[in-house]
């Protein structure tokens, strides 16, 4: 028993230490000139660039703008994806009419639609939000549709015997049964939302984290570019952790 606990702790410590070992090797390689600074700046230089952005307020302003774009796109795409997934999951007629065009659009690389979005919606905020919303909608659509179709039929039979109305069945059976898989779709959608934002913020952006990266590219500030990418990664990890915490709280009854 003790050896098993020690082995578990050992691997946990190794997982925790591995990123720091990589950073130490990276810093050492930069200090000895093994890694060219104009290709990959040292971690210390990237940290200094980040501190510079924090002190002058540029990072806070960029995070606020990027956060609003993701939130708007997530809400819009989430509502569309869940609504269509619910309709298709509950109705064979909706499945026959809605699912084929949805699958056709899903087959398109949504980031490849940027030129079309620019023609249709201009270069303002709207195409950025819509690009995020488009990427977000499909994971939620597929997970909602699949979750509803996988609800145990015996539960519906029991509800019918008890005389449940449609809304009682929806509230008491469908929503609790589908919630775990829908929350998985939310986590997938968040990852796609940040990925979409990275590209969307390069559409003539004048604010946001993407703008900081594009502006740094023009001035050959590789340290700021890498710092911006790290911020995107941390935002993705952070929002995923929030959804996981909400998932554990919302589904604690399953324990």
Explain this structure to me?
The protein has about 260 residues and is mostly helical. The chain has one domain: MetI-like (MetI-like fold, Orthogonal Bundle). It contains ten helices and no strands. The mean pLDDT is about 85. Keywords: Cell membrane, Membrane, Transmembrane, Transmembrane helix, Transport. This is Alkanesulfonate ABC transporter permease protein SsuC. Pfam families: BPD_transp_1.
What's this entry about, in short?
It is found in: Cell membrane. 81% of the residues lie in helices and 0% in strands.
What structural keywords apply?
10 helices, about 0% strand, transmembrane helix, mainly alpha, MetI-like_sf, about 260 residues, MetI-like, transmembrane, MetI-like fold, about 80% helix
Q: What is the average of the pLDDT values?
A: 84
Query: How many β-strand stretches?
Result: 0
Count, helices:
10
Backbone structural class: mainly alpha
Return Rg in Å: 23 Å
Low-confidence stretches: none
- What is the global morphology? globular
Alpha-carbon distance between the two ends: 25 Å
Biggest sheet: strands, sense, closure?
Answer: none
CATH topology: MetI-like fold
Task: Please render the helix and strand layout as text.
Layout lengths: L1 H30 L11 H13 L2 H33 L1 H15 L7 H8 L3 H25 L3 H9 L4 H35 L8 H10 L3 H29 L5
Family: Belongs to the binding-protein-dependent transport system permease family.
Membrane topology: Multi-pass membrane protein
Keywords: Cell membrane, Membrane, Transmembrane, Transmembrane helix, Transport
């Amino acid at each position: 028993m003790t050896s098993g606990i020690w082995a578990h702790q050992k691997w946990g410590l190794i997982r925790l230490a591995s990123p720091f070992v990589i950073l130490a090797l990276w810093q050492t390689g930069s200090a000895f000139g093994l890694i060219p600074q104009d290709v990959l700046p040292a971690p210390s230089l990237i940290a200094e660039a980040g501190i510079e952005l924090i002190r002058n307020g540029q990072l806070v302003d960029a995070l606020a703008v990027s956060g609003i774009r993701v939130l708007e796109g997530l809400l819009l795409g989430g509502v569309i994806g869940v609504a269509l997934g619910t309709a298709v999951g509950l109705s064979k007629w909706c499945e026959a009419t809605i699912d084929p065009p949805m699958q056709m659009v899903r087959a398109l690389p949504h980031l490849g639609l940027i030129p079309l979005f620019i023609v249709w919606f201009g270069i303002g905020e709207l195409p950025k939000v819509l690009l995020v919303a488009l990427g977000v909608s499909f994971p939620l659509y597929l997970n909602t549709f699949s979750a509803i179709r996988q609800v145990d039929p015996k539960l519906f039979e029991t509800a019918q015997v008890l005389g449940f109305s449609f809304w009682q069945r929806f509230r008491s059976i469908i929503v609790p049964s589908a919630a775990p898989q829908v929350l998985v779709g939310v986590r997938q959608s968040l990852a796609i939302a940040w990925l979409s934002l990275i590209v969307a913020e390069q559409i003539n952006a004048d604010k946001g984290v993407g703008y900081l990266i594009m502006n740094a590219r023009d001035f050959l500030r590789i340290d700021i570019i890498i710092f911006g990418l790290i911020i995107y990664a941390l935002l993705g990890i952070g929002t995923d952790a929030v959804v996981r915490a909400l998932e554990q709280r919302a589904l604690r009854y399953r324990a």
